[in-house]
C-alpha cells in the first residue's frame, strides 16, 4: 500500500443516514453479500472512530439510537460495529435470526486464559451447540427444579442475616448466590471462597500476531493452569463421592459424569463447563437481587403496592414459598420493571454475524444488543424513564406474555442459567419484602446504577434500612420452622 493509500485509509468515511423504520420491512440480503450501505452512523472525524467513554458508554449509544434510528453503525478504529437499540429490531435480528448472529468476536486473550474451553466466548459451531444443549437440558430438567428448597433455605438465611446484621446485607446476598451456584455446579452445601477473574484488555486482542511470540501471554497461560487445577479438583471430588456412594444430591457435575457417554465431553471439558457456572452465575445473581431491592427502596409507593398483595395472599401468620408465585403477579411485575429500569448488562454482550442477513449486516460484523435502549423503546414501554410495574400486567390482572426482557441475552447466546437465577431473585424478593419495609439511608450516597455490572461493586451504591413488618419473635420463629419443600 502506498503512503497516499495509507493516508486515505485513516480518513473515516461518513456512512449515509439510511434510517430504518421500525414499521418498515427490513431489507433482505437473501444470503448474498448486501450492496446497500450499513445502518446509519453518527458523524465523526476522529481518526480512532467514535468515542465511547469507559464509564456508562451505553448512555452515549442510547443518544445516538434516539437520533439516528433503531439500528446504527459506529466505527472503532477500522472496525464497523452495529448497535441494535429498539425492541422490534432486536426481535428481528437477535431472536428470529439468532442462528446468524450466534458468533462471538474473536478474543484471543480469553482463548488463551481458558485454554479454548470457555463457554461464554466460544465461537459459533458444533462445540458451542453441544455445550449449549447440555447446559439447557440440565438447567431445565427436574433435577434443576430440585434446587427450589435450597433456594428457599438460602433466602431464609438472608432474612435471618438482616435481623442479625442489617449493615452487611450485601454480603448476605453474595453468600446466597455463591452457595446456590456451588450446589448447582458441584453439589456442595458450603461456599468455597474464590476470586472471580476479571477480563482486562490485552494487547493481543488488537495485535493478534503477538500470540505467536513464545514469551507473550505467560500470565494468561498461568491463569489457565490455575483454573484447570481448580475446576478439575472439584470434578475429582464429585467422582470420589460417587465412587463412595455418598448421597450428595443432584449437581451438574454429577449429571455430566453419569451421562458423559451421551454428550461426549472429556473430563477437562466437563470441569470447565461446570466452572462456567461460578464465573457467570454468582455475582450477576447477587447484583440482580440488589437491584430489585434497591428499586423497592427508591419507589416506596410501588413497594407498598407489592406488600399489599403479599398481605392479601399470604398474611403475617405463615412464611411465603414458591407455591405462592402464581398468586403474586404484582411482585413478578415489580421484578420485571426493576430489571428493565436498571438492566444488569446495559451494553449487552458482543455477538458476531456468521452470514450476511437482515438490515444488510455483513458476515463478520460485531453486533451488540444495547439492552439499555431496548428497555427504553417508547413504542413498547411508554414513558420509558418512569418506574411503572403496571406495564407488565394485562387487563385481566395477569402477567403479560406478549413482551419479554432481554436482560439474559439474545437468541442462541441467551444465558442458560436464567431459570435458576430468576427463581433466586423471586424467592429473595418475596421473603425480604414480606418481612421488611425497605428505605434508603438518607445519610449515605445513592448511585442507582451502581449494581449494573457483572461483578459486585467495590463501593456500595446505597445503604438500606430495614423496618420489620412482623414482630421479630414471630419472624424468627417462622424462619426457624420454614418449610423444606417448595
Give structural notes.
β1 (71-76) and β2 (79-84) form a beta hairpin. This protein starts with a helix and ends in a 6-residue tail after the last helix. The longest helix is centred in the middle third of the chain and has 32 residues, at 267-298. It is built from 17 helices and 6 strands. The strands form 2 sheets. The chain has a 4-stranded mixed sheet with strand order 1-2-4-3. A two-stranded antiparallel sheet has the order 5-6. The chain has a domain at 27-116 and 346-375. The chain has helices at 3-9, 57-68, 87-95, 108-113, 126-139, 142-145, 148-164, 169-186, 218-243, 252-258, 260-263, 267-298, 300-313, 329-341, 371-374, 418-435, 472-480, and strands at residues 71-76, 79-84, 350-352, 366-369, 436-440, 464-468. The chain has 486 residues and is mostly helical. Mean pLDDT is 83; it is low at 1-33. Keywords: Heme, Iron, Metal-binding, Monooxygenase, Oxidoreductase. This is Cytochrome P450. Heme binds at residue 415.
